[in-house]
Amino acid sequence: MGVEQSGFAGFANPVDPSPTELRAWAYQPDSVPLQSMPQDWDLLVAGDRLVGSLFELAMDRNCPARRFALHCLYIYAADGIRTNFRAHPKRRLRKLVEQAERAGDEPMVNWAHNCRMLLAKPHLFVYHDWCEGGLVRSGRRLA
């Protein structure tokens, strides 16, 4: 019935997946292993076109690719903040942060907190933490 139950046949264009393809893959991530994706696939999908889907996946505690989606949200936020919102709209990030604070669990609330900290203190940006999954793996809140 839902995306979760249907089979995933793969991406028509893995460099530019559709939101539907991304969601289908996220519930069956072993169908196309991350190692087989194009280099820096996380950076490719962490853009405005897919951020809504990534946010939904990161909010879903039952999504098998949740950590990947959260990792992409960290990339998205850092890219927006570090470019003074030339890369992504500030309003969109602010709405996602507020929604995560209202309805998210600990990993999502931590993401929202860390986004607010980076906004206030851009010197807290460390590439490993924001773009290579360090904050996702550690669950750390920036101070």
Structure in a nutshell:
The protein has one domain.
Topology:
Layout (H helix, E strand, L loop, with lengths): L18 H8 L14 H5 L2 H12 L6 H17 L7 H14 L2 H15 L6 H5 L2 H5 L5
What this model shows, in words?
By secondary structure, the chain is an all-alpha fold. The chain has one domain. The chain contains 8 helices and no strands. Helix 1 (19-26) runs parallel beside helix 3 (48-59) and helix 4 packs parallel to helix 6 (106-120). The longest helix is centred in the middle third of the chain and has 17 residues, at 66-82. The radius of gyration is 15 Å and the shape is globular.
Descriptive terms for the model:
about 55% helix; single chain; 8 helices; about 140 residues; about 0% strand; globular; mainly alpha
Strand content: under 5%
Order of helices and strands: HHHHHHHH
Mean pLDDT: 93
What distance lies between the first and last C-alpha atoms, to the nearest angstrom? Answer: 43 Å
